[in-house]
Amino acid sequence: MSQGTLVKRQFGHRARLALSPAGVRAADDQAHAARTMWNLLHAWWRMMPKEKRTLPHADAAIRQAREDIDFLAVLPAQAAQAVLKTYFQAWKNCWDGRTDAPNFKGRPRTVMSVDIPQGRDLNIVRVHRRWGMVNLPKVGRVRFRWTKDLPVGKRASAKNRITGARLIKDALGWHIAFRVQTLQRRPEPHQGPDIGIDVGVTVPVALSDGETYEHGAWLTEEEKARLLHLEQRAAQRKQHRKRGERTSRRLQHTYDQISGVRAKAKRRALDWQHKTTTAIARTYGTVVVEALTITNMVKSAKGTVEEPGKNVAQKAGLNRSISQEAWGRTVTMLTYKTTQHGGTLVKAPAPGTSRRCSACGFTTPGSRESQAVFVCKNPDCGWSGNADHNAARNVLHLYRMGLALVPAAGRAVVRRAKRVKPAAAR
Question: Within 10 Å of residue 347's Cβ, how many Cβ atoms?
């Protein structure tokens, strides 16, 4: 194997932590300190003149802040440096036109997280088949669920090692995401067939060759009943809260229980999406999807006072169903997974794909008789079949005719158009 065929890749592996109550408090304090450090950096950046906005000056400022503010001392020094590097990288991304300018991080809408930049500080050991131990700075030795083999001990090398980790808290508790760097062979061009994909609500993923990928409800009937009960309890307790009054502990506990049930549904949806997109990326060489503007598709239909909308409740239900399917996340997974397997992903124009007959190419009114049935009304054709498969075949047809919007490139993030640098940025 020649060195030219090897490429470095970064992978993330997430596992659940088994923290004690004291460990949970320590991790929470570190996450709040990291968010406060970001906000202090942002305030310092806006206050300083342009020539003072440098990495050495910012480093000196956060060192002084850690000495002056006792609360910031709970954050490890390397984690504070990681906040500084992340903040400067956010400005670089803004200047390159990839993201918006960084802003203050509010407590309710910010994901609680702490970075561990050095992989050697983790000291990972596998205890037995299901559990491992990891060292967390200023927290101690903590168990985590061993669900995937990690390059530790004799398996670790310069080509395959853990470079760091990140602690993340969600509704199900604290997790650790390991950053794994590995040297892999560059994939050969995928020789699989081309495939068109149509996404929907009733049939989540339909392929042009007749294959479909469907899923059931993300929650069981018992879990749905529990979620409804918790939502009703939260609504009742919220009635007794005066406007502007802080949320009571009982109401906040109910909110946490609701978040936990919804997080289970999201984890199951993510698992299904990963398995589905992996199967597609392994099987097909070129994957063609619709270039959907999902933000416009889920806009409300209530209209204005002068011109009220029609079927507002039905449209709201459709919007929820579209959001739950997370079509954009599916396309993102397909993008990087097709690249890893040597394939490519292409986007084709979406208008008219569900109304055009894939057999004769004509678009005649009333051909789509129902959600699942397509019957061509062209007297010379009369083809009938599944409506979702018909749309997927039309998507593939647009690619073969050279009408793709995005050429086969295999990049996970499409850069935004370059904008003028904000005057207050530098």
Answer: 22
In one-letter notation, the amino acid at residue 198 is D
DSSP 157-193: -SSEEEEEEEEEEETTEEEEEEEEEEEEEPPPPP-SP
pLDDT in tens, 373-392: 888 888 888 888 888 888 89
Strands (E), 19-139: 113-116, 125-126, 131-136
Contact call for residues 374 and 368 (beta carbons, < 8 A)? yes
Mean pLDDT computed over 142-148: 91
The residue count of the chain comes to 426
The model's pLDDT over 290-303, given as tens digits with 9 standing for 90+, comes to: 888 878 777 777 77
What is the average per-residue pLDDT within 310-318? 79
**pLDDT surpasses 80 at 344:** yes
Average confidence score pLDDT of the chain: 85
Are the beta carbons of 196 and 140 closer than 8 angstroms?
A: no
What are residue 135's phi and psi, to 5 degrees?
Answer: -95, 120
> Residues 94, 102: contact at Cβ < 8 Å?
yes
Q: Which residues, listed in sequence order, are joined to residue 17 by a DSSP beta bridge?
A: 144
DSSP letters for 265-325: HHHHHHHHHHHHHHHHHHH-SEEEEE---HHHHT----B-SSSB-SSHHHHHHHHHHHHHH
Question: Six-digit token pair at 157?
Answer: 């090398």
